[in-house]
Amino acid sequence: MKRRTDPEYGSPQKRQKKRIEELGLTLSSTSDDETQLNSNHATQDSSATSSSESDSENSGRRPALSTFSNKFSADSLVEGTSSRYAMYNSVSQKLMAKMGFREGEGLGKYGQGRQEIVETSQQKGRRGLGLILKGFDGEMNINWQDEPEASAYEQVDWCPECTTEIPDAEEMKDWMTIGKRKLAIDDETEFCGKELIHRMLQCKTVFDVLDGVEMRRARTRSNPYEMIRGAFFLNRAAMKMANIDYVFDHMFTNPKDSRGKPLIKESSAELLYFADVCAGPGGFSEYVLWRKKWHAKGFGMTLKGPNDFKLEDFYAASSELFEPYYGEGGVEGDGDITRPENISAFQQFVLDNTDQKGVHFLMADGGFSVEGQENIQEILSKQLTLCQFLTGLSVIRTGGHFICKTFDLFTPFSVGLVYLLYCCFECVSIFKPVTSRPANSERYVICRGLKAGIEEVRDYLFTVNIKINQLRNSDQDVNLVVPLEVIRGDHDFYDYMIRSNERFCAVQIKALAKIRAFVQDTTLNEPRQADIRKECLRLWGIPDQARIAPFSSDPLSKFYELTQGTNVEIFSYKSTPLNSKTLHKIRPVLDYRCMVSGSDDQKFLLSLGKSHIYTWLGHQSDRWTKLELKIELPRDTLLCVEIVPELKGEGKARRKIHAIHILDALVLNGSDVREQHFNQRIQLAEKFVKAVSKPSRPDMSPIRVKEVYRLEDMEKIFLRLEMKVIKSSGGISQLSYTGRDDRHFVPFGLYIVRTVSDPWTMAFSKTSNKKFFYNKTTQHATYELPPESVAPFHICYFCRLFWKWDDGKMHDSQKKEDSEKLSKETVLSFIRQHFTL
User: RrmJ-type SAM-dependent 2'-O-MTase domain: from which residue to which, for each copy (predicted)?
Assistant: First the structure.
């Protein structure tokens, strides 16, 4: 659909009164200094006279700011005493009268005492006696007590779907408008009513004179959701992401297609890729990795310095699954997202490591201190918001999702940015979770389903960012990215932005008024904070646990913990040598898989987290020894591996590194996979390796999964063997096997692994031209994989064979051959004989 423009549509002031009434706000022109009590602030005699009665009757109600009435019965007044002293009860007045008190006169024999009463001290905290804070000595004429009952259940308000095409470069070429730099927000009334904005700014200003400690205490007491905090995560941000993820049907941690089917299954080889920008210390990522574990891989970019990622504080999740990358310069970069070269470098890095597809979703949670300038936080953060949106469009794959923190969205610049997202995504919502404090301007733009063909919008925003950088030290700025008439022309979007802004503005005004009341009356509190916390955690699937550092253990204890119930003797089994006497064991060819060995021994590798990694040869008499290689793996990981010296190049140009080659997987970051099929274990190990690999860290030793071949395809292995001159070999060529990544190593032989448990075996049906499973005991045959035929780890390990290649002829150029050793031709001939299609 073609885009339309409407320069006249709008004028929120025309409909403002009605909207304000719908929002439940009564905005009076009466000044703050004038006392104007409504019915909700009227006298509550029962609460004034009996606290116990009040506690029992109002235990389930919202806390109320009590005020005393100036109305007293006539018989309570002492004759000669004006209504000025009517606030004191009759007993007090009679006592003063007996002592000779007369209004306007002092006490004492000669009336020499002070004529005015001693006022009740309003001193709070460390303020001086008698100090009166402007803005806290009257009423605000805002009824905060009618706020909705606190609940863990939240509603999502999606903007109507965009029906116009994505703008192209030709259409956007004149959209950017440059003008005088603005540093005021009070006149931004295009997308929010004037009275609402002014009242919100007025409410914020009241707190400028308030001590920070008092403000925080009142805010903590007044917010029914305050006790949720960070649970066992790094910070509150993690719980915000848990909150948002639940409300939006886990569209981030369990993305689904348009029919509601999961896009990624944990049993599949595909990882859930995500990015986290402007996100130090990393609470968002900690939540995602806690939820998904090693089935997810994260990329992060944030500003280097005190607010960098604090991966060492990821107690709930394994930070080894997260890879920070700081733009230009990689791990040595500065992470400044406003620098175009950093955005481009991060984009390229993410695409290179996601098969050029991009991430499934990106989270952005940028912000910085605006102390003393809170009212213009939106303006001060405009470039940060732009760059977060731009980075999202740069690295999210088609169909992916986006979440970004913003603040007020009153200016046409901010609304224009949201409009571009509205055009580029299938659905957009502006949402404020209950974990976001109601008195602040924070809200989140949630975008679902990135459309194809958004490249020109991305390039346009890239150009806008360059222009903002060029104007940084001048009095000029980019004030519009989308013309107002274009935004007005989309009535659905225009109305949605006004409705959203005014709803959040009304909530914020009431929350600020409530905090003010809690500052004035320190006895007020929110009685349901603990219950609300429990309800939210239960609903979001977050255990109610304290945050504690992971328990440190020794490798032997951890090994027994991970292999509980397993006979330890299994790990000491030696592989059966493959020779002329044992060649018959591989007669059921389809039951076996094979892998090239690159070391003279295999080991078990155990990770306790980070670089605390140990190896063990399998004998109970052997000790677990610290791995000398530089590598990091998630805790609770147990693998069967080889340490292989890999080579690249030949002769003097050869480079050597030591790599970890996985032969089999037992436990992956706490997930026990020993009972799964060997093929599935290898597939999960490959997924695990993708998640933990760090391409940005060439200083770390690589970890790879062995290439697995069907036994009937063994000939493919010999095609990848060649003779190479190895350094220190005296110029003599040696047999070499080249892997998938173009690195080669000296092969020691071949591991042959049985993947089918007795009495089952696999065979090939010439009639149906399909493989099938056959039970030798019951003579039952089936094309479906019988669960009992799956060989778990201990069967594979116990039944494995090893064909040693030390003196056998494996390459045509090799001349020396030990007649007692199996040759390539002998084994291949045997396989062909017992496997015919």
Answer: 232-451
d(CA 768, CA 741): 38
Q: What is the mean pLDDT of residues 626-646?
A: 96
Q: Of the given ranges (63-77, 246-260, 333-347, 349-363), which has the lowest mean pLDDT? A: 63-77
The reply to whether 687 belongs to the active site is no
Q: Residues 369-383: what's their mean pLDDT?
A: 91
C-alpha–C-alpha distance, residues 147 and 298, integer Å: 39
The gap between the terminal CA atoms of the chain, to the nearest Å, is 58
pLDDT at 540: 98
Please tell me which residue in 240, 293, 432, 690 is annotated as part of the active site. 240
- What domains does the chain contain, in order, with CATH numbers? 180-195+233-489 (3.40.50.12760), 555-755+791-834 (3.30.470.30)
Query: Mean pLDDT throughout 228-240?
Result: 96
pTM metric for this prediction: 0.85
**Annotation marks residue 405 as catalytic:** yes
Contact 197, 23 (CB under 8 A): no
Strand, helix or coil for residue 408: coil
Beta bridge partners of 703: 660
Tell me how far apart the alpha carbons of residues 368 and 385 are, in angstroms, rounded to a whole number. 12
Angle between helices 529-540 and 236-247 (to 10 degrees): 60
Cis ω before 438 (30° cut-off from 0):
no
Task: Determine the pLDDT at residue 671.
Answer: 96
Cα separation, 342 vs 371, in Å, equals 28
> Strand, coil or helix: what is 25?
coil
Among residues 32, 276, 336, 365, which one is catalytic?
Answer: 365
> Which amino acid would we find at residue 310?
K
* Active-site residue (options: 293, 297, 304, 405): 405
Q: Would you say residue 85 has pLDDT above 70?
A: no
- Contact (Cβ atoms closer than 8 angstroms) between residue 781 and residue 772: yes
Residue 181: left if φ>0, alpha if ψ -120 to 50, beta else—which one? beta
Distance CA 808, CA 231 (A): 62
Hunting for tokens 């008439």 — which residue is that? 485
- Please count the CA atoms within 13 angstroms of the CA of 751 that sit on its side-chain side: 28
Active site residue 240: yes
The single residue listed with the structure tokens 């809170």 is: 374
